Amino acid sequence: MANKRLSDLIESYYSSLLVQITTYTHYFSLKLPEINLKLFQIALLLFINFPLYAETTSEVDISITKSIENTWTLIYQMSRPANRLSFVRNPDNSRVERWKPISPDFEIVFEEGKEYLNKKDGSSFEHAELMLTPTYKHLSKDYAPFSPYSDSGVLIYTGRLFACIDMCTEDVNDWRVSMNIPLGEHLIVNGKVYTNSTNWVDRDDGMNIYVGRQKPIETDSVIAVIDSGLPEEIKLSLSADIPKLMVYFQERLGKLNGVKPTLFASYAKVDDRSSQGGTLPNQIFMHWNLNDLDAKVKDTKFINQTTWFFAHEVAHLYQRSKFGVLYGEPNQSWLHEGNADWLAALALLDLYPKTEEYITEKVGRFKKHCVDGLKELSLIEATNEGQFGLYYTCGLLIHRAIDHAVQKKSNGLKNIYSLWNEFRQKVEHGDEKGPETFLTLVEQYTSKELVIRIKKLVETKLSSPEDILNRLSIDQ
Ligand SMILES: [Zn+2]
User: Fold this and answer.
1) What pTM was computed for the model?
2) Cα of 133 to ligand 1 centre, how many Å?
3) pLDDT tens sequence across 135-172
4) Domains in the chain, start-ordered, CATH in brackets?
5) Distance (Å, rounded) from C-alpha 260 to C-alpha 216?
């Protein structure tokens, strides 16, 4: 069965902040291309159904062993001989450096944008063993393979390991995964704790697995594995703000399906400036890979930005239907990224009224970023042009305009949440996910004129984006 990979997100922790700062300061503007590469969206399903390991067949079985010395061995066992193994995810060529075949007969090669594992003499094989490098590696447009905790625990991302005999197609979507860990440590898989070893059937985008000694804390809203080395301000925010935001969005968008989400927050105090966060089904995670977090948290703006980021990620958890995410292709990301940012703004204004000035300023900067960006290219081209940040900035403005128009037309009885809830219902009843269904509803909730303007803003390169942005908000 073809198992369509639906989509979700991973984004730089500073995504929105960087979008703002890049617009305004010379130093950060130099970093813009790099930042935009960090902003990304990928595919997944809401539910991971967990078929039984023993009853499932997979082309390639994956086995991971962590030793007490922190060596990570990866074994692939194929169901039939392979000429080579290909990988589902190919963000760059870093496996070539970071994955070491144990036998000198094997090599990892990078060809035409994809990595492959093969034997040097070209002969086929059914079994291969490699050593992994268990450090943080920022992957452009993908989840980090390892996110280390400061107490030597680590998150490992399984989607990185998914491999196929010869070639990956959408039909190959089940991997039997087993993991073995040293005595005294435990694994957290799908919210459950295991010692020694466990196995499961993994699929779609995979998931993050915790390996280490830290006990998860179960709260009403999440199972939390929060790095004890994080500054108190961040720990406090994670344990107080995330549940608060979940309640806030649950009241407006309904309860989450499936198991209680696990919140992973890891901190590697290293000389770097990289940080990342994202969501996978029933998982929300953040990793800070930098050494000045203690100083950063003294800055109110940084705290506001962190809360905004949390709100954005939590909002993503509520953007799914029973069957998976509601949004479409990467070049249509204004739909969910813009929505998540607008919902973040609404949540902060309601829950943390002192952030009003920060938000007003931020929306102003988003507008400038969007206007400047759309002079150069259309929004649907942004993903191919490394301008992913425009989905956040222009997207927020689109959703804000829709929200205001819905409220105006309904005399305050309906809002963006009513619209999103009906959008979810429609998709659950068989309508196509993505912007077409969403905009059909927008037309019903507001006006045909607004939808025409939104489409123009999304699909065409504009000589004066400011005019059309202004017209989103008036004449409704
Ligand atoms: Zn996002």
Assistant:
1) 0.83
2) 28
3) 999 987 789 999 999 999 999 999 999 999 999 998 99
4) 8-43+227-472 (1.10.390.10), 60-215 (2.60.40.3650)
5) 13
